[in-house]
């Protein structure tokens, strides 16, 4: 790895921490450069533009989230959809995941408004997570794997949204209610 590539990776790592801590509120090119500890010009030396910066940083955040999910729900032992939802729900609504899910909600909202580069980022991240879920599903032959994976993601993202938007202690009760529904 060249020195430039190593420095670029260090910038991405610092900016991933910045986005997880502050969300998208402070993402002007100048604010990103400041958070990365470099000048605006140096940031543009590493990346073509702000869109490339944000795409690289979100790829890093999604990768970190995937690693954490893989630790919580390892590959190799496929799960029935209800069990996968139960495990993923318990994990993604935990306090350590709130910053990841909060950033994801912000990125999805920006994509819904058509703000570049977020539609492309959301599409890429969502495709990766559908594959991740699919690889852990135990489904009968002929089942709609892609549709099932997307439905599981919708449930998990919905739970995270309620968790993020709630000021009370609804999250544990919500997870328990979901488990009860899935057990029926």
TrEMBL record:
<keyword id="KW-0238">DNA-binding</keyword>
<feature type="domain" description="HTH tetR-type">
    <location>
        <begin position="5"/>
        <end position="65"/>
    </location>
</feature>
<dbReference type="GO" id="GO:0003677">
    <property type="term" value="F:DNA binding"/>
</dbReference>
<dbReference type="InterPro" id="IPR009057">
    <property type="entry name" value="Homeodomain-like_sf"/>
</dbReference>
<dbReference type="InterPro" id="IPR001647">
    <property type="entry name" value="HTH_TetR"/>
</dbReference>
<dbReference type="InterPro" id="IPR036271">
    <property type="entry name" value="Tet_transcr_reg_TetR-rel_C_sf"/>
</dbReference>
<dbReference type="Pfam" id="PF00440">
    <property type="entry name" value="TetR_N"/>
</dbReference>
<protein>
    <submittedName>
        <fullName>TetR/AcrR family transcriptional regulator</fullName>
    </submittedName>
</protein>
<feature type="DNA-binding region" description="H-T-H motif">
    <location>
        <begin position="28"/>
        <end position="47"/>
    </location>
</feature>
């Amino acid at each position: 790895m060249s020195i430039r590539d190593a420095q670029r990776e260090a910038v991405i790592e610092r900016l991933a921490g910045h986005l997880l801590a502050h969300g998208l509120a402070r993402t002007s090119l100048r604010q990103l450069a400041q958070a990365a500890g470099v000048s605006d010009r140096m940031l543009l030396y590493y990346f073509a533009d702000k869109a490339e910066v944000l795409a690289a940083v979100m790829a890093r955040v999604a990768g970190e989230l995937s690693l954490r999910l893989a630790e919580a729900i390892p590959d190799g032992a496929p799960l029935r959809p209800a069990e996968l939802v139960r495990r993923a729900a318990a994990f993604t609504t935990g306090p350590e995941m709130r910053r990841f899910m909060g950033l994801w909600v912000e990125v999805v909202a920006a994509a819904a408004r058509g703000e570049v580069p977020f539609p492309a980022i959301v599409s890429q991240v969502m495709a990766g997570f559908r594959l991740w879920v699919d690889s852990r599903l135990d489904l009968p032959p002929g089942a709609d794997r892609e549709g099932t994976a997307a439905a599981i993601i919708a449930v998990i993202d919905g739970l995270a949204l309620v968790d993020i938007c709630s000021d009370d202690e609804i999250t544990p009760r919500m997870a328990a209610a979901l488990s009860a529904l899935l057990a029926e």
